[in-house]
Structures are given as C-alpha cells and as structure tokens.
C-alpha cells in the first residue's frame, strides 16, 4: 500500500509567502497538488514566488495585500475564491518584530511598542483567520493553520512582547477549533524554532548560530522546507483528526533552552542601548 500526501483539487492561501517559511509552504502545497494564492505585502515578491511555482509545474496566483486593512484582507480571500472556486487551506504566516523594533529589556517597552508588536503578530493573524473562516463556513469547511513561534514554549527574555503575542495565537487556536469544528473547519498552530531563513542567515553571527545548535537536543537548527512539509501534512486528510493543537517544531529547543542564545553577549548589547 502506498500512502500519498495529495492536495489535488484543493485551493490554499498562504500569507507572508514572499520569502522564508511562507515561501516554502506555498511551494510544498503546490507540489502536493494544491492551487495556491501567494500573499505578501510586496507585490514583486509574491509574483516571484508564483513564478517559481509555475516553473515547477504548479498553479498559483499572487494576492498581494496589506493585512492591516480589513477590506484588503477580505479582498485577498475573495480573489482566492474567485480564482479557484473555494478556499480549503489557509496558512497565516504573518508576524515578526516590526521594522525598526528590536529585542530589548521588558522595562524598556512602551505603549507604542506593545501596540505595534501585538498588532503585527496577533491582530493581523486573527483578522486573516476571521475572513478565511467566514468563507470556509459558507463552503465545505477546511483547515486554518497559524505559524507562531517556539518562543511561546519557554521564557523569552528581551522578546517578551513578541512571545506573548504569538502565545495568544496558540490560545486563539483552541477557541477557534471549538467554535468552528461543527462547520468542518480544523484550526491548528505550528510553532517553529529558530529557522535557517534568509533573514536569520543574514542577521545571526556564526557564534550565535553555534550557541543555538548546541542548545538543542538534536544539535541542529530547523530548515524552512521541514516546516513546509509539516504544514502540508497538517493540512492533509492524514491529519484530519487533529484540531485545536499547536505543534512544536524546534529540534527540541523547548526542552533545554530558557535563555537567549549567546546570552551574555546579547544581554550586554541590549543593556547598552534602550533605544525604542
């Protein structure tokens, strides 16, 4: 007997898919047969990912949108349904420290920090989930998957607000799963550990990467295509009995790491500047 992971005939929307984890999820869903709507704030990045999927023989469309705008989110979902006839899978991969923000001590965070970080990492994801769920309720159900963070599984010094916002999504998932389950909608979260994306590779020193690797039981970082494979599985019928859960994919870092990698150097750097 052969077991296949097949999304043929299904349509998917992946937000934040212009690079990194979101890009790989969009590509892997397409490889599994799904038609994919690729969202990014930057239209050129969304179009570039669509071109990659086309070259690999998949089907995709760009749906650039600023997900801070309710109307833009509704239009993004409507465009997906108009192009593909339905929305069966939604992956919400929005969120990071907003531009100009950086990790810093908890006592240095002010109101605008809170509002900015929570808005980008919780509110935007929830707004997307609302629009996606509304369409799925009117259709045949589906799967909504949120990408959160491994920082939600342990103390996160100097990243406390970001981690709190991401942790709130993990809890939101449980409430959505109970409320939307009778409509045939599964709701899940995937919590990656430090992932070797282009952004991480450019920002982290070799010493910090080594410290992260040493702190994980598997002695490795997470690759973004591994997360894409996990997302493709969770969205499939092979996982149809799973809802209301958040799946940790961090090479075991949550078992052993409760302080930032390269903690002494990072602490000294942050204490040297409380700039907002």
Radius of gyration: 18 Å
Number of helices: 9
Shape: globular
Biggest sheet, open or closed, and with what strands and sense?
Answer: 7 strands, parallel
Structural class, from helix and strand content? alpha/beta
Order of helices and strands: EHEHEHEHEHEHHHEH
CATH homologous superfamily name?
NAD(P)-binding Rossmann-like Domain
**Shape-level CATH architecture:** 3-Layer(aba) Sandwich
- What's the CATH class label? Alpha Beta
Work out the number of β strands: 7
**Integer count of domains:** 1
Overall average pLDDT: 86
* CATH topology tier name: Rossmann fold
Placed side by side, the strands forming the largest sheet appear as 3-2-1-4-5-6-7
């Amino acid at each position: 007997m052969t077991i296949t992971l097949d999304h043929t005939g299904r349509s998917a929307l992946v937000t934040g898919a212009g690079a990194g984890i979101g890009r790989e999820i969009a590509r892997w869903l397409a490889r599994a047969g799904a038609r994919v709507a690729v969202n990014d704030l930057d239209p050129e990045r969304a179009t570039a990912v669509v071109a990659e999927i086309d070259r690999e023989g998949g089907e995709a469309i760009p749906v650039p949108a600023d997900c801070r705008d309710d109307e833009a989110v509704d239009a993004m979902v409507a465009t997906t349904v108009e192009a593909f006839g339905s929305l069966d899978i939604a992956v919400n991969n929005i969120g990071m420290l907003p531009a100009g923000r950086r990790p810093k001590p908890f006592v240095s965070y002010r109101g605008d920090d809170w509002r900015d970080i929570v808005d980008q990492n919780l509110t935007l994801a929830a707004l997307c989930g609302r629009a996606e769920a509304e369409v799925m309720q009117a259709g045949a159900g589906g799967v909504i998957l949120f990408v959160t963070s491994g920082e939600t599984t342990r103390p996160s010094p100097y990243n406390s607000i970001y981690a709190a916002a991401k942790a709130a999504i993990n809890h939101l998932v449980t409430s959505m799963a109970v409320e939307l389950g009778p409509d045939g909608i599964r709701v899940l979260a995937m919590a990656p550990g430090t992932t070797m994306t282009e952004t991480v590779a450019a920002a982290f020193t070799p010493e910090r990467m080594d410290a992260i690797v040493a702190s994980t039981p598997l002695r490795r970082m997470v690759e973004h295509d591994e997360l894409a494979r996990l997302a493709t599985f969770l969205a499939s019928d092979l996982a149809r009995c799973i809802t209301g859960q958040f799946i940790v994919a961090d090479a075991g870092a949550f078992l052993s790491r409760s302080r930032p990698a390269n903690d002494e150097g990072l602490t000294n750097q942050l204490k040297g500047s409380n700039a907002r």
